[in-house]
Amino acid sequence: MVSLRSSGPLAVGGPLTMHLGGAESNVAIGLARLGHRVAWVGRVSDDELGEFVLRHLRAEGVDTSGVRRDPDRPAGLMFLERRTEDVTRVQYHRAGSAGSALSVDDLRGPLAAGPRLLHLTGITPALSDAAHQAATWAAREAVASGTAVSLDVNYRARLWSREDARATLTPLAGYASVVIASADELDLVAEPGADEATAVAALLDRGVRTVLVKLGADGARAYTRDGVTHAPAVPVTAVDTVGAGDAFTAGYLSGQLDGLALVDRLHRAVTLGAFAVAGHGDWEGLPRRDELSLINGSAAGTTLR
Amino acid sequence: MVSLRSSGPLAVGGPLTMHLGGAESNVAIGLARLGHRVAWVGRVSDDELGEFVLRHLRAEGVDTSGVRRDPDRPAGLMFLERRTEDVTRVQYHRAGSAGSALSVDDLRGPLAAGPRLLHLTGITPALSDAAHQAATWAAREAVASGTAVSLDVNYRARLWSREDARATLTPLAGYASVVIASADELDLVAEPGADEATAVAALLDRGVRTVLVKLGADGARAYTRDGVTHAPAVPVTAVDTVGAGDAFTAGYLSGQLDGLALVDRLHRAVTLGAFAVAGHGDWEGLPRRDELSLINGSAAGTTLR
Amino acid sequence: MVSLRSSGPLAVGGPLTMHLGGAESNVAIGLARLGHRVAWVGRVSDDELGEFVLRHLRAEGVDTSGVRRDPDRPAGLMFLERRTEDVTRVQYHRAGSAGSALSVDDLRGPLAAGPRLLHLTGITPALSDAAHQAATWAAREAVASGTAVSLDVNYRARLWSREDARATLTPLAGYASVVIASADELDLVAEPGADEATAVAALLDRGVRTVLVKLGADGARAYTRDGVTHAPAVPVTAVDTVGAGDAFTAGYLSGQLDGLALVDRLHRAVTLGAFAVAGHGDWEGLPRRDELSLINGSAAGTTLR
Amino acid sequence: MVSLRSSGPLAVGGPLTMHLGGAESNVAIGLARLGHRVAWVGRVSDDELGEFVLRHLRAEGVDTSGVRRDPDRPAGLMFLERRTEDVTRVQYHRAGSAGSALSVDDLRGPLAAGPRLLHLTGITPALSDAAHQAATWAAREAVASGTAVSLDVNYRARLWSREDARATLTPLAGYASVVIASADELDLVAEPGADEATAVAALLDRGVRTVLVKLGADGARAYTRDGVTHAPAVPVTAVDTVGAGDAFTAGYLSGQLDGLALVDRLHRAVTLGAFAVAGHGDWEGLPRRDELSLINGSAAGTTLR
Amino acid sequence: MVSLRSSGPLAVGGPLTMHLGGAESNVAIGLARLGHRVAWVGRVSDDELGEFVLRHLRAEGVDTSGVRRDPDRPAGLMFLERRTEDVTRVQYHRAGSAGSALSVDDLRGPLAAGPRLLHLTGITPALSDAAHQAATWAAREAVASGTAVSLDVNYRARLWSREDARATLTPLAGYASVVIASADELDLVAEPGADEATAVAALLDRGVRTVLVKLGADGARAYTRDGVTHAPAVPVTAVDTVGAGDAFTAGYLSGQLDGLALVDRLHRAVTLGAFAVAGHGDWEGLPRRDELSLINGSAAGTTLR
Amino acid sequence: MVSLRSSGPLAVGGPLTMHLGGAESNVAIGLARLGHRVAWVGRVSDDELGEFVLRHLRAEGVDTSGVRRDPDRPAGLMFLERRTEDVTRVQYHRAGSAGSALSVDDLRGPLAAGPRLLHLTGITPALSDAAHQAATWAAREAVASGTAVSLDVNYRARLWSREDARATLTPLAGYASVVIASADELDLVAEPGADEATAVAALLDRGVRTVLVKLGADGARAYTRDGVTHAPAVPVTAVDTVGAGDAFTAGYLSGQLDGLALVDRLHRAVTLGAFAVAGHGDWEGLPRRDELSLINGSAAGTTLR
């Protein structure tokens, strides 16, 4: 998806900057920067905007060999407007886009390669029936072949209602070993109105191994059958919160792939979240492995010479 | 429609500038800058991009009171890529846009106000069946109530085939007193493959009073029952050819509204075309009435102090 | 007036951005964005900079039909320099400008249209004797014909001394039903050195119905014969305080035109002030009516998807 | 003077870039870049814009120790609008500016230093009576003390009429040993309507040693009592003609100060003119002495590695 | 190598844009865009600038798995200054750079992979003794193992003298099956002062199969034992000649890899050269395979809708 | 030195802005802006980048007549990357630069002029043996001829180890009457690991008159034989900490040159530091003398009209 960002009110106009956008690609880049081998799979338009998307994924070292070009559908777009210093509004032009036409066939090859992990978000099934089916098929297939599944709820109010989301995502969560959600998204993978404890318990009961609850400036909680672990956020000067959740997810999954203990996974997760909010762009500021120590709760305003 | 312009290859990225785009709004602005009272009618999205469109029309003094806001559909978009210094590529995201949902009802009120002139382009009917019907209805209604109709063929290969265009535009041309086309568009309002003379003759036979053939750097020809008049292009340094045809049309219609003789209408038409190509943007460089004399075939590289 | 903004020290140079500036036009835009019918009246230069001013007013839906173009005088200019992150300096080039030549005749027509409200600022009378007379004439005429008058003191030290301002504005305040001032401006419409209570009492005694005291980050107080009401500021991340007072005024007057209770007028006033300081530019970030709820004291750093 | 440049129509807005502007400072910089010792004398505002002017002059190595800061008057401004690719419009805000208040006293000290050459333009006397008197006094004083005087006619239609210019500049030319004019300026230092031959003859009769006629793309002619010399323009791709005349003058005067033969002075003059038109800005592209050979009539499109 | 471009004189300052630069990477990108599998081999600094280089190569689909990161040496830099519209100056900061430390060991692995073609330029051996030895070793090794070698002379006066270049490049040319040179570079791979015919004959005698002579706006000549073929340049509006030679080389080699006839290779070569000069940047404007037809000698100023 | 700044991660690319950089030039500009006569001495490359450096120094009124141009060495460069909002990384390209070749001979002339003060930093001796010798020679010579010496430790970890720095700077400090250091730099001019009290005592014992310890947001301490004085930092909104230490030094030295009491020197020092952190750029925001009162601990967010 191409993200078009304005630095002020869209109605007034002004230059837009083009970025690669998308929760899944953010996670993929977060992992690739940390040195993991990662592929992004999906459909992109067979035009210049699609080329733009691929150029960025390749630049970041994400494997795009499984991407399918769609000659008939345009690129998905996202307008990201900084309406005030504190309020960012997102507007999607994704109906009928190449990405929304994702199908089971598009995922067959990449899954057959047998990845260790399949990461899904709640955005894909919101795009179309085909995409919904593809996501569900992939989750089931992954589990069947021993690939772990992670699911970030990523609820987008502009794409569907909470009811539709719940009806779709709750079954999907059943395939996941890791479920990631913000506090107000938890009941989208549980009973309507369920509080955190109830929702988490239900998920763990259904076989989810870890439930991660993102708390923004308050850090995150990780629930397992063994209990709950809390990690405070790493304090930084926040300039752009977009992408922070995806960065968090990438950090957690990176720790999981590295075989870290839960507390260390969580720390990497909040550290990546900190990088995301301390830099401009969805993913541009994410760290390489040797940069992880740049942000560690230490002093603000550092100049390294 | 919102036009998003890149100054280089889209695939490489870089800032996009936002502009008001659209053949009809270009013509409306061209007329308004010359002091004519002009309204633009259509549907725009009920969001920030729609607001952007309206802000620009209002800024230029175009009456937007008849515009309908569509709460359910997104703004139409156009990506305008300068692929090389000589090659500009246009890509539309208009399927399902607010503008494509134009309906007869949207036009009823504005037409009832009894304008002297109704300007249509061949783009509107290409957008959807509803828009096609609306345009045809408006042309018929206008003729019935004594409003003159002008039609610019404006063929867009990205929107429909030549065959479809011809089947739609040829009947529409029958309502027009002025038909404007580039040389290779003429047979879209006549028999397939008709040469210029044949196509023009057929149009005049069907009651069109004036047929204008745009020739780019070679100027333009105007055909009436009295014969043909040629106006050479006004020589300027061309920096951006987008919008030149619309400027030409605005110049001609301005002359007609002012009651000028044919040759003077043509001269104003090519003068406005020259302003359009000598300035950046689709319409930004169009002249106010007191600026018409800035371009008159005189010396290039003038500094007025 | 054209406002030329630098993002750093002017002496070092760098690009300037052009904006429409002026306390009265800020208020007019604030009202128009909220859906009120509003006209801006004044003189603008009959050149490109004057055209720039009119384009922005029209874009915002402000009626400019009563504006007079002055062929002999240049546009007024304001250089706005961000000297440090916290210190913004303003420098005027208004002596001899078109705006400074405002005359009684310029205001005759617009006032004859019988608006519900006439908003004046203390800047206009500072520009020239003619402008002073025009403002006074308009206030008197408005009162005589039943049009309410609001006056924002808006003291500008670069334009005149406190003594001159007091001598002019104190009588002018007598025509107003609403007087708006910051705390340190109150004694410019009262006795020199008068404290807030004394100054307010004197104004209310002279027939002013409401006295609004702007307190910046501390919100505002509204005094009537019934007592005093305080509204705290709406907390936002401030990026640009320029225009906040005008936004406050527009919010208050909007509430008054809507027939809101005093406390609700005040709330709208501080809300508009919050929009102004949370966005860049004097007026660019002001809300449309459906955007008022975006800022309501809730969480910072929100992304709406 | 501060020059504010827009890259498109001013009425549409967009960023302005700040530049040092002014015919005399252009000449001063042209000479300083070539290694000559040169001072610029005048009044500049005692504010940030004045500081901007001085920073640029100092950066270029022009002596500013004789400049007087005026605490009471604003900086002179020039808006430079690229209206179309070929038409640049200039608009002055110089009435009442610091520069327009130039007085005899301002020039006394610098002239007492006994420079080899005093360069004057026809712009200074157009600014005010005081400036007119100062220029005339300086020319007379210079001649009296053996300092050569050069005068560039530099007629500015926005500042005064041809009649006023002629009445002022014709006597001034009598003090000059070098007079520089474009072809259509010649009769501003001679009888009204005088043709080139007549005007030149009259100037030479009055004691002017050299009359330079700037012909733009056709180069230049130099007249002395010994006859006429023509130098063709140096062919370059022109991107910005502003400042070309001043560059020409600087080149000629540099050659004179270096003791070059007339033909070599002319060649340096047209070479500097070529640098000015081949680069953006009034003076930014002017060459240092070791760069003179970069432009010499040779091939376009050269990359030096 | 990181290329830092200014759009005007460096001494005046202004923003620099960062680009991937280097003759070899230009050729690699040209080939990759046309769909060929291509790897770029070299040393890049183990810092952010090195990362920048790799990101661009990967974005373009160039294999970077054989690149070696050098922790001890900085990135090579190139300042590219547009001194006038026609004169571009290049300044290198490559002494001691990572790239200059290229060694035989760095090339061993990549060559062992058995590519069909090894492309070398005359720049690499100019950087250091080690790089010289590495290039020579690679050429010899390639020939020994049946990999064809192409050599672009690419003389850089800022790096070494013509004498040194000749002494190094003449033996190197003996390994090449294709030698590419501009007309004034030919005698750097032949006897000093040799004219084109003599130099070409000597190269063909030494076993070079094809000698390509780049003629800029005049196209190119290709010499083989069978005679000479000339291809005219494809006419386009030139905006940036940097990289044109590398584009030409990429086009030729692409044709060779595709098994095209000589005349068709040459046509592709001049077509890629046309793309390079018609777009900004060294390689940004190079075509994908489906874009080759965008430039074909047809009309300038085309808008494709 | 030329400082190239990116506003985000260097690896992602984007425009770089060119600035004059260097601790000594920052101090020189700080002093010149406050009206002191100051010369900067060093070597700069004899190319466009060197010219850029000199243009900025001259613009700021710093005497550059003693600067030596080096035709054989490139300009020193510094890449300044804003990696996150809080973390700025600096990368030097100074090995082999013109500045690193500073020699005793370069300093002979300027020192012979008998300045009141010689300011040295710990960066110069880190650049090369020659520069080390030059700095030491200059310090000794200054003391011998009655010129006071100030030394700012300015430790740069990218240039040398703490051990090497200590070995060089400790003897150098012996020549200084003022030594400036941040708290963690103090033991670089004392015994390894010495705490603040010990290090300061040792310096005072060796004859240093004043030891200034920079504490960032906590202000600064000044030690003399009479005891210690603390000055809190002046509270401002910090946007760019680069150059703050140099500004502090310039403020202190300015106070010393003005004959202020220690406490007033310190106050000026922290005031200049506040200007540096409240503005963008290393030195661009430093105050002129009449601007010192703009920052005085008063309210943030001030607009001066």
From TrEMBL, chains A, B, C, D, E, F:
Entries under InterPro entries matching the protein: Carboh/pur_kinase_PfkB_CS, PfkB_Carbo_kinase, PfkB_dom, Ribokinase-like
Keyword ATP-binding part of the UniProt annotation: yes
Keywords tagged on the record: ATP-binding, Kinase, Nucleotide-binding, Transferase
Any Pfam family matching the protein: PfkB
SUPFAM superfamilies the UniProt entry points to: Ribokinase-like (SSF53613)
One Gene Ontology molecular-function label: ATP binding
Transmembrane segments: none
PROSITE patterns found in the cross-reference section: PFKB_KINASES_2
Residue ranges of domain Carbohydrate kinase PfkB in the record: 16-286
Domain of life: Bacteria
PANTHER family named in the record: HEXOKINASE FAMILY MEMBER (PTHR43085), PSEUDOURIDINE KINASE-RELATED (PTHR43085:SF1)
Family to which this protein belongs: Belongs to the carbohydrate kinase PfkB family.
Protein name: Sugar kinase
Species name: Micromonospora rosaria
